[in-house]
Write a structure and sequence with these properties.
This protein has 14 helices and eight strands. By secondary structure, the protein is of the alpha/beta class. The protein has an eight-stranded mixed sheet, with helices on both faces. Helix 1 packs across helix 14 and helix 7 packs across helix 8. The protein starts with a strand and ends with a helix.
Length: 314
């Protein structure tokens, strides 16, 4: 880990923290919620040892990157603007793109807005969710799961922040990293009501938990929650891209215990042709058995090998 370099880069009106290591073709890693560049620590070391330049930013609102106060500053246009500005600042023309959770959502949009900057895509956990012109994502989830679904609960400014603050941050991170499917994540008592695991899974340590806890104690969770709160605005602004296919060469990996994979209708979409229709250059779908949502950390070596196997073709 000490070989990883940390830099602050000005981009799109903010200062962005990036972790980077290695030389060669560039792999850009995009983390999810509630995570950091740190979620990709294993992949950074693995792929840099095989001749790649690996870059993992703290996305807008996270870690050591600036956190604008308004939720309206967290649409996918802002996030992708940050990333394009980052690549421009570093003099990078094209990248291999790897995303997980919210990072995967951003990566899908990145490939729709700027496919010229992406050689190939490896996305984890969240498949392409084409824009429904009839209903936005938040109301779609509300209709499917009700007001207690986490995506809906996160919409109210300050509510989830209070919920998170009621629990020690290290304990909260343990609760979140222990989440598995198949039930949708409906939390009538908030995330603080989730059961604390009796012991740490083998894939993360007290050191890992403390790193996340320290950074979220410094920054808070509002920046990450603002991605959810900007969803409706993103839906409004992306109307011109309705029906657009993602044509970047793509590999998709998901765990069979992932709460996203267990959403009603998701498996059918992924496996019965809908996903391939929306992403015609989808070249591989991998379902890993016995694996939950935080797949890039839970099965770090396997995910690193999957990424390498795919991007090494190009």
């Amino acid at each position: 880990m000490e070989k990883i370099e940390h830099t602050i880069v000005p981009t799109n009106g903010i200062n962005m923290h990036i972790a980077s290591i290695g030389t060669g073709p560039v792999v850009l890693f995009l983390h999810g919620f509630p995570e950091l560049w740190y979620s990709w620590r294993h992949q950074l070391l693995y792929l840099s040892s095989l001749g790649y330049r690996c870059i993992a930013p703290d996305l807008r609102g996270y870690g050591d990157t600036d956190s604008p106060p308004s939720a309206a500053s967290y649409t996918v246009f802002h996030i992708i603007g940050d990333l394009v500005g980052l690549l421009d600042h570093l003099g990078i023309d094209q990248v291999f793109l790897v995303g997980h959770d919210w990072g995967a959502i951003v990566a899908w949009h990145f490939c729709s807005f700027r496919p010229d900057r992406v050689k190939a895509l490896v996305n984890l956990s969240v498949p392409y969710l084409p824009r429904n012109p009839a209903i936005n994502l938040v109301e779609g989830f509300r209709a499917l799961f009700g007001d207690d679904y986490y995506f809906c609960r996160f919409q109210e400014p300050g509510e989830s922040e209070k919920d998170f603050a009621s629990v020690d941050t290290a304990i909260l991170m343990k609760k979140i990293f222990a989440i598995v499917g198949p039930q949708p994540l409906c939390v009538p008592n908030g995330f603080s009501g989730l059961q604390t695991p009796d012991s740490l899974p083998s894939w993360y340590s007290d050191e890992d938990i403390n790193y996340y806890a320290t950074k979220f104690n410094e920054k808070g969770f509002t920046g990450g929650l603002n991605y959810y709160r900007a969803c409706n605005l993103t839906w409004e602004l992306t109307a011109p891209w309705t029906g657009l296919q993602i044509k970047v060469p793509t590999k998709f990996i998901v765990g069979d215990l992932d709460i996203v994979y267990c959403i009603p209708g998701m498996k059918e979409y992924i496996h019965n042709g809908g996903f391939k229709k929306d992403v015609p250059n989808l070249q591989d779908v991998v379902v890993m058995e016995g694996v939950a949502h935080f797949i890039n950390q839970e099965k770090a070596e396997e995910i690193s090998a999957h990424i390498y196997e795919f991007i090494n073709k190009f």
